[in-house]
Amino acid sequence: MYVELKNINKKFGDFKASDNVSFGIEKGKLIGLLGPSGSGKTTILRMIAGLENPDSGEIIIDGKVVNNIPASKREIGFVFQNYALFRYMTVYENIAFGLRVRKVDKKSTDKRVKELISLIGLEGLEKRYPSQLSGGQRQRVAFARALAPNPQLLLLDEPFAAIDAKVRKELRSWLKEMIEKLGVTSIFVTHDQDEAIEVADEIIITNKGRIEQIGTPLEIYQNPQTAFSASFFGLTSFLEDYQKFHTFEKIEGAETAIVRPEFVKVTKKTEFQKYKSSVSEGVVERVSFRGDNIELKVRTNETVLTAKRGLDEQSISVGEKVDVLIYRIFVTVKEKTYLLENQSLKENSIVI
User: Fold this and answer.
1) How far is residue 317's CA from residue 2's CA, in Å, rounded to a whole number?
2) What b-and-e string marks burial along 105-124, b requiring 16 or more CB atoms within 10 Å of the CB?
3) How far apart, in whole angstroms, are the C-alpha atoms of residue 229 and residue 334?
4) What is the distance between the alpha carbons of residues 12 and 312, in angstroms, rounded to a whole number?
5) Quick one: which of 207, 206, 212, 234 has its CA closest to 221?
6) Spatial CA neighbour of 30 closest among 177, 229, 136, 165
7) Which of 280, 259, 263, 266 is nearest to 317 (CA)?
8) Which of 148, 159, 151 is nearest to 188 (CA)?
9) Which domains does the chain have, with CATH numbers?
10) pLDDT 10s per residue in the chain (352 long)?
11) Is 256 helix (H, G, I), strand (E, B) or coil?
12) Calpha distance 255→196 (Å, rounded)
């Protein structure tokens, strides 16, 4: 492993930001630290960078314990959420800053800065100031400035948070391509599930200072190991008694049943429903247009579920009675999560 955290603990007063955190990251990987606000993800990033010190445990980079090595000596690039560019420096000067601090000669600095300006696609903007750039352009300059000294590790703290939605999507793809091209080990913090799924090679889910799960986006999405991991992706609903819904295996000691929108099929009373014996009747409470689908909030069996319908399907109105089929759920028992299939459905009878 290129980066390792072993039994890291960190408190701020009575608040435990890191609770015995341990994980390893392979060289060249792009890792997403994903979790809600206050889950400890930024604290982890800042401790790796040397901007915070752990109360106990070891931080190891490239085989060396770096706990007592100052941030300036760790060969780490850091991209901040708010860009943190120098307002009175041009694009060129901002990117060159770290090299000049390290007293790299002028010729080498010029060569490196020009390489990076080309890499981030901002040729011709070298003499502009941050105020003359768009949000996406400023973040590219921040990225180039962090890369200028050839860091062995790149850390990004919610790098797209201050950028509008359309540009954010474009920068996600751009960032992934750049990091793959450069091969630099990178860790980015985010609370955006879609962002983590799209960008990261692996995701580390944090919650209340602990690590909930580590794996590829697909592994975590399809096989969550805890109730938190299962509920963190998408607009999940919770069932107090999933046995009110038909034909699911009874699990002894079941504590929580979690339903994702893609596990629910809502049909109009006038539409054909192949599995009529397995449906529950529901009432539509909200209909929302989401661009590529229609999102429904449906009350059934004293629970409000979120479901989706395609734009090419018949419209459904608020107050309309509908049939609700749940064909898959996650059930948690203590620290384990089980995926249950509706037993009335034959394999491959519904295409997700």
Assistant:
1) 54
2) eeeebeebbeebbeebebee
3) 13
4) 52
5) 234
6) 177
7) 266
8) 159
9) 3-225 (3.40.50.300), 234-341 (2.40.50.140)
10) 899 999 999 999 999 999 999 999 999 999 999 999 889 999 999 999 999 999 999 999 999 999 999 998 898 999 887 778 899 999 999 999 989 988 999 999 999 999 999 988 899 999 999 999 998 899 899 989 999 998 989 999 988 776 777 777 778 888 888 888 888 999 999 988 888 988 999 999 999 999 999 999 999 988 898 888 988 877 889 988 888 887 888 888 888 899 999 999 999 998 887 777 788 899 999 999 988 899 999 999 889 999 999 999 999 999 999 999 998 899 988 878 888 888 877 544 544 4
11) strand
12) 28
What single letter denotes the amino acid at residue 168?
R
CB-CB neighbours of 131 under 10 Å:
9
d(C-alpha 224, C-alpha 337), whole Å: 7
The length of the chain is 352
Encoding tokens for residue 219? 């592994």
Which residues are registered as beta bridge partners of 124?
none
Which residue is listed with tokens 């200028």?
Answer: 148
Q: Hey, what amino acid is at 310?
A: G
CA distances from 336 to 141, 218, 330, 342 (A): 44, 18, 10, 19
Q: Which residues contact 51 (CB under 8 A, 6 or more apart)?
A: 71, 78
Q: Structure tokens of 344? A: 């009335």
Residue 239, both tokens: 């069932």
pTM of the predicted structure, to 2 decimals: 0.85
